[in-house]
What we know:
Organism: Paenarthrobacter aurescens (Arthrobacter aurescens)
Shape: globular
CATH architecture of the largest domain: 3-Layer(aba) Sandwich
CATH superfamily of the largest domain: Alpha/Beta hydrolase fold, catalytic domain
GO molecular function: serine-type peptidase activity
Oligomer: single chain
Helix content: 25-40%
Number of domains: 3
InterPro entries: AB_hydrolase_fold, Peptidase_S9_cat
Radius of gyration: 23 Å
Number of strands: 14
Structural class: alpha/beta
Number of helices: 12
Strand content: 15-25%
Pfam families: Peptidase_S9
Order of helices and strands: HHHEEEEEEEEEHEHEHEHHHEHEHH
Largest sheet: 8 strands, mixed
Transmembrane segments: 22-49
CATH topology of the largest domain: Rossmann fold
CATH class of the largest domain: Alpha Beta
Amino acid sequence: MASTTPPASDAANNKLSLRTKWAIAGFLAGGTLAGLVGAGSSALAVYFARRVITPAARHEDQEVLAVIRGDKGPQIILAATPDSTIDGVFSLFFSGGKGHARIGRIVSYSPAEQTVLREVEEVYSGNLSEARRAWWSGATYPDPAAIGLAAEDVDIEVAGGKAPAWLIRAEASAASPVCAIMVHGRGATRLEGLRAVRTARELGMDSLLISYRNDGLAPSATDGRYGLGSTEWRDVEAAIEYAVDHGAQEIVLFGWSMGGAISLQTADLSKHRHLIRALVLDAPVINWVNVMAHHAEMNKIPYNVGRYGQMMLSHPLGRRLTGLSAPVDLKAMDWEARAIELRTPTLLIHSVDDDYVPFGPSASLAEKNPEMVTFEPFDGARHTKEWNVDPERWERVVRAWLQKQLAPRNNPGQTGNPTVGPGLA
């Protein structure tokens, strides 16, 4: 894949390559004076790099104080956190993920006591009254049945085995010509895409909610590491092939967070990219260097150490430290720099207070390529929770934008007999 970065002189490239090799080799050797002096910073860089690409279990970092009976049903008292004090509809997972409750609106909030009282809309599994710790999530529903929809459990052939997926038909009688493939984010699961299924169905699209390598359902990658989109896109390509084999003629990719980076890679590299009609990306990673620099700053990691960590991910010599089977080409996934190369109509939904994946690159991509990219900012939703804080607006924005993208259009070279989008004839 060609980079949009202006080429440097061969001498400069060789110098940089040599410097990079010596930097990593020095740490690998570990016995030289330079290696010993820089050992602390190097170890921190290794730790930082490995954390980015290593799948990890969710931490129950939300304290549950009590469950009480309110006038309209059960209510829950939680320790006030940046997440638990956002109004909207969310999930609370407890008992190591075996318990799941849907949490509704804020009833009261006490800044002095640092507690928040919220409605409990439904407990899907587990005994919430016994929960003391939990984790907060925007993945509101446990399965398609929870939103009143039937789904087929299907398996998609991927490298290493089969990846489970849910197939939800728009119409029970036949396959839709357009399939929406839902690509969840880092550390999440296919539950994340359930929030978009009803909108997809209203537009006449089937929905395929997939799993991919290292997400706990699909087969793990051989190295057990995330490729940040550089490897996972192949599992999305397999999902496209499955959809096409089962009646789809066109594809719309929905992606959340890292799922956005994966979707962009798919639209760029897949042999089926000509079938991808549109991308709907929620809080997507547009530029991994920007995200990593942001997290280094948040964790008070010195700038040079953070850059060293990035170098380890992208250079072949870093594999011994990171555990990656192949380096990750961060430049190839920098869509700020490659903005003009994006030729798939794309809707970017991103909250301006997202402190996990900053919204700046999304706004920048739309500014640099307004022909293809539409940016819809939200506020107060933090990361990937735009639907949760305002589902009506989220669905309205997505529906209106996709209606334009899926509108009937002429086949290339024809002036009549337009191709008709699903549900839009």
